[in-house]
Amino acid sequence: MTSSATGRAWVAVRAAAVLLGAGSVIWAALPPVHKGYAGFALTVAIAGVAGGGLRLALTAVPVPEESYLLSAGLRAWRAFLAAVRLVPWEEGALIAIVWLEVLHPARPWHTAVLGAGLVAYLLVTHLAESDASLATLRPQARVLGAGAGLLALGAAAGMLPAAGPGAGSALLRTVAAAALIAAAGLVLPYVARR
Amino acid sequence: MIPNGPGVPAPGTELELHWRSSRHARRLLTLGLAGLFAAVLARRPEFAGLAAPALLLLVAGRVQRRPPRITVSARPSTRRVFEGERLAVDVVAEGAGEGSVRWRLHPGLEIAPAGATAADGRRARFVVSPERWGRRQLGTLEVTLRDPWRLAEGHASMPLPSLDCYPAPAQQRTRVVLRRLPNRLGEHPARASGEGIEFSGVREYVPGDRQRSINWPASTRRGRLQVNTFAAERSQDVVLLVDATSDVGEPGSSALDLALRGAGAAARAYTGARDRVGVITYQWGGTSWLPPGLGRRQVYRIIDSMLSSDAGWARGASFARLPRAALPPGALVVVFSPLLDQRFVEALRDMRERGFTLLVVDVLYAEPPARRRAEDRIARRIWRMEQEAIRFSLRELGVAVVHWDGEESLDLPLAGYTRRPMAAWR
Question: By C-alpha distance, which of A30, A20, A27, A1 is closest to A131?
């Protein structure tokens, strides 16, 4: 691969990560809600995605060596780079996006698409920061497929009408979905190892 | 690169890996936990589905095999290098299993990376360049082993071997030769006649002279047989006296830098002429020394001796009581010093009075800082006058003093003494 092609791939994978993050934020935020610190959650989500993108863009920038003789500008640049690399931007964005989705009324299919988007965002971010190729994910394809199936099952469970009135019925469905995930988690390692 | 062959292949070092979750795993865990919490708190099963892919990846990734140890070998291309030269460090990891290896080099003090400091793969090569002479630690190597799913990272680090960085020698092609040379075969034409190749004169033939040395034109003119005579070829003992007491000036061109570079150049030049060269490193009244010897290896021994002043065979010997092996009688003593230590100047006077032929290369290339205050200006002038007085007093004793700035070739300041044999004044 030529250097220009490598450079294009480098930019593309980072742009894809940022676009997936931004898409997830928009998907979770719309339609706007005005309760439960929605504005704060949206701000955190945007800052998280933007900070994560900035961190990915600055991956290759070397940090100036610590020295007593560093100028104020270089010292500030060094602190900025350290801060950008230290803060867990994506984690903050994930929590904020999930919180934004919780604030909306139940919309299972919408949540399932958001889940797929968030997993894709995390995988592409991982590929970008480790400079790995897409082939790295091939061994995980079976697990990701099972995860997609559980995602669909979760959405389907959310769309089912409650067996009876009251909160207990909804909680029962949630516990059932969690138990399904746990069962899949127990079985999958043996499937994935083959 | 110094031609001593590649460094000894380092045996592999077994490093214990400290495994911890990768950033990717931490993010997946965040998504999974956030989804599960939302599902339980909001009682909406679709959030459990949202958490499912992340949690499944984490659980499935736990079954990957993670080796507890890794064997790493690091081999520098050489253990001896001159300032500014490049050397490669080859690193190999064994026992990494299916995981991928990432290397990161943290260069040591005065070691500049000449390329990338991070690399991927079981084998990697880092190129570094030491910036200043001395015994230098190459740095620290950080190894990160990632499991195939990159959900966990094993970290380990190891110190890289040290290397000897020699001062970049200055240029010196000409040599100062004493007028009186010891009776030992060498390359310098002596005043005595002998079996050399340099024409010395013509004399009358005496029985026993070789026929091939008859000078036929002179014989025809004088009517008697005349033979050519040639100068004997001798070698001399040269002792390099390096004053390591004061290190003044900018790092990289300080008095000690210049002294070591000049001594290295002189060692090369004199050993190239089959002279026996030794070194005495003076430091606060104590010395380490290396007796004069022949050959190219002696140059590296001399530099080694200068780099580690405690590596000499007479550790901490007194300068006033050096044995004949360190300072042979009749040797040419070439001194590299900024002449700032009064005790050292006194020692030079003492050596001169004992009959040694001294040639001082003054490597002082720094002055007290110029300030506006009148007292400072006067102090600066007094300092300069003192320095001039020291050099004048040495010249009065018959000690040759030349100044060298470290930039030009050593041949230039020594030109006045290399054109003709130097008299060993008594």
Answer: A1
Question: B341 lies in a domain?
Answer: yes
Using CB atoms, pick whichever of B24, B45, B60 lies closest to residue A158: B45
Q: Is residue B116 within 8 angstroms of chain A, CB to CB?
A: no
**Of A94, A178, A189, which has the smallest distance from its Cβ to B48's Cβ?**
A178
Give the number of A-B residue pairs with CB atoms closer than 8 Å. 167
In a domain, B176, yes or no: no
Residue contact A99–B38, C-beta within 8 A: yes
Q: B72 with B109, same domain?
A: yes
Q: What is the DSSP string of B13-33?
A: EEEE-EEEE-HHHHHHHHHHH
Q: Contact at 8 Å (CB) between B173 and B269? A: yes
Name, in order, each residue with C-beta under 8 angstroms of A104's C-beta and a sequence gap of 6 or more.
Answer: A28, A31, A33, A110
| Number of domains chain B is built from | 3
In terms of domains, do B243 and B212 share one?
no
* B390 and B266 part of one domain: yes
CATH of the domain at B269: 3.40.50
For chain A, the domains span: 1-106, 133-194
* B350 Cα to chain A: minimum distance (Å): 45
Q: Find chain A residues with C-beta within 8 A of B115's C-beta.
A: none
- B126 touching A (Cβ < 8 Å): no
* Domain-embedded: residue B36: no
Give B43-72 pLDDT, tens digit per residue. Answer: 787 888 888 888 888 888 777 778 888 888
Residues of chain A contacting residue B34, judged by C-beta atoms under 8 Å apart? 94-95, 98-99
Q: Which of A111, A133, A134 to mutate to test the interface with B (most CBs of B within 10 A)?
A: A111
- Of B120, B136, B166, the domain-final residue: B166
Reported as a single tens digit per residue, the pLDDT across B170-224 is 888 888 888 777 777 777 777 777 777 778 888 899 988 888 889 999 999 999 9
pLDDT at A187 over 80: no
Provide ipTM, 2 decimals.
0.85
Please name the residues in contact with B287: beta carbons below 8 A apart, sequence gap of 6 or more.
B280, B281, B312, B314, B316, B317, B318, B319, B322, B326
CB contact under 8 A, B27 and A115: no
**Cβ–Cβ < 8 Å for B34, A163:** no
Interface contact B48-A146, CB threshold 8 A: no
Quote the domain boundaries for residue B79: 13-21+65-166
For residues B414 and B280, membership in a common domain is answered with: yes
Of A98, A151, A154, the CB nearest to B34: A98
Residue B88 sits in a domain of what CATH number? 2.60.40.10
Neighbours of B248 (CB within 10 A): 15
**Structure tokens belonging to residue B406:** 């470290």
Determine, for residues B45 and A173 on separate chains, whether the beta-carbon distance falls below 8 Å: yes
- Residue B254: inside a domain: yes
CA atoms within 13 A on the CB side of B221: 8
How close is the nearest chain A Cα to the Cα of B52, in Å? 6
- Beta-sheet pairing, B80-82 with B162-166: parallel
